[in-house]
Design a protein that fits this description.
About 50% of the residues lie in helices and about 20% in strands. The chain is α+β, with helices and mostly antiparallel strands and about 240 residues long. Helix 4 packs across helix 9 and helix 5 crosses helix 7. InterPro entries: GAF-like_dom_sf, HTH_MetabolicPath_Reg, Tscrpt_reg_IclR_C, Tscrpt_reg_IclR_N, WH-like_DNA-bd_sf, WH_DNA-bd_sf.
């Protein structure tokens, strides 16, 4: 076997996973591909199935499991945080407003990165702040592309409507006027992972007296550009 680490069980499990990269594989094919003993391959494959790193298709063949997709998404989100600072700083400087990056955690959206406006009246949202998924342009972006059931659940008691979310999907960005807090406006756009799923929302926020009652008309283009930069950063293959 290539790429021996010296930890036997890990090396063998990695060999099984590598063999499954080619697609659905029977136990006999897995034995041939890994050159491991049949009982060893069977035991490892079953253990990997238990941890969802491997699954079985409708014909009983072994395939790579859903847990690998989840782990890959998490790795992509780590790249998201690493890439966020310069993008948010540029967005703040381009708009003159505070910029944030939100990710959904259960029934909340959490600020995971921010660049605050240094002086004057501003909307301050420190990293780690939990905000409602029922109001605000970032919440609209994080919900708009969910599947039907999650969408309906998310709309319960929300301050935005299905029509508003339809507009978000059509335009590709969201705006809010006093939804989260009176006098505060915001513009957000979705950040997507490698699979195309929305994994975050990048936003600017500030007082309506500066952002006006049509903040998207003024700032949507630059917010969309920031979201696209972060989407590209997440999609890059790690070195």
């Amino acid at each position: 076997m290539d790429n021996i680490s010296g930890v036997g069980v890990i090396d063998k499990a990695a060999t099984v996973l590598n063999a499954l990269e080619a697609g659905p594989t029977t136990l006999a094919q897995l034995v041939a591909a890994t050159r491991l003993a049949r009982p060893t391959v069977h035991r490892l494959a079953q253990a990997l199935v238990h941890h969802r790193l491997v699954s079985r298709d409708i014909q009983g063949r072994f395939v790579l499991g859903s847990r690998l997709v989840e782990l890959a998404a998490a790795a992509g989100e780590d790249r998201l945080i690493a890439s966020a600072s310069p993008v948010l700083l540029h967005l703040r400087d381009a708009t003159g407003e505070s910029a944030q990056l939100f990710r959904r955690q259960g029934e909340w959206r959490v600020c995971v990165a921010s660049a605050e406006r240094p002086i004057g009246l501003r909307d301050t949202i420190p990293v780690g702040t939990q905000l409602s998924m029922k109001a605000g342009s970032a919440a609209q972006c994080l919900l708009a592309w969910e599947d039907h059931d999650r969408l309906l659940k998310g709309l319960q008691e929300a301050r935005f409507t299905p029509t508003v979310l339809a507009g978000v999907r059509r335009r590709g960005w969201a705006q809010s006027l006093g939804e989260r807090e009176a006098g505060v406006a915001s513009v957000s756009a979705p950040v997507r992972g490698p699979s195309g799923r929305v994994i975050a929302a990048v936003s600017i926020s500030g007082p309506m007296e500066r952002l006006t009652r049509q903040p998207g008309r003024i700032h949507a283009e630059v917010v969309l550009s920031a979201a696209q930069q972060l989407t590209q950063a997440v999609g890059k293959t790690a070195d």
